[in-house]
Amino acid sequence: xxxxxxxxxxxxxxxxxxxxxxxxxxxxxxxxxxxxxxxxxxxxxxxxxxxxxxxxxxxxxxxxxxxxxxxxxxxxxxxxxxxxxxxxxxxxxxxxxxxxxxxxxxxxxxxxxxxxxxxxxxxxxxxxxxxxxxxxxxxxxxxxxxxxxxxxxxxxxxxxxxxxxxxxxxxxxxxxxxxxxxxxxxxxxxxxxxxxxxxxxxxxxxxxxxxxxxxxxxxxxxxxxx
Length: 226
Description:
elongated; DNA polymerase, domain 1
């Protein structure tokens, strides 16, 4: 397939060579090409070709689009995330990306990742029985990384935009049955009685001790100094 000065050449099952003409070298006048092998369906190779051509036409460095998501995440974690995160949060980011994002998207070319790819990664997490909170946390971390990629001009758009996230389930309020309510009230009353009894006994001892101290002091005063 050829599009303007780009080509997609099949290299086996779900393997495509994307080739883009970058112009001639100023010194040698030799033709320069950008070559990259993309794994996946042909539409993914076509998406990657479109992005390379757009970056080239905008005068940006085409080399940036050859970075895989895994390579970019390594750079992002060390240079952007680590300096502003606490150690515990940093390790949490690394662990989450290693367990849920890298196995699915880590080998993909960063600029070729689409919103559908991101949605598929989240759906795989849901199918594995992971909670909505974990999926949302993964989206938050990945979204932060993608926003940095845009600031570094490695991406033109954020592929996490528009992702459908699972809803957080609110914990249902448990209502005590009539029997449980009676048992709770009975236990509460007993507890109050015990507390009151102990408080009364303590108060009585304190009062008795005060009276004895006063009586002893009065007796000494009546006898006069010795």
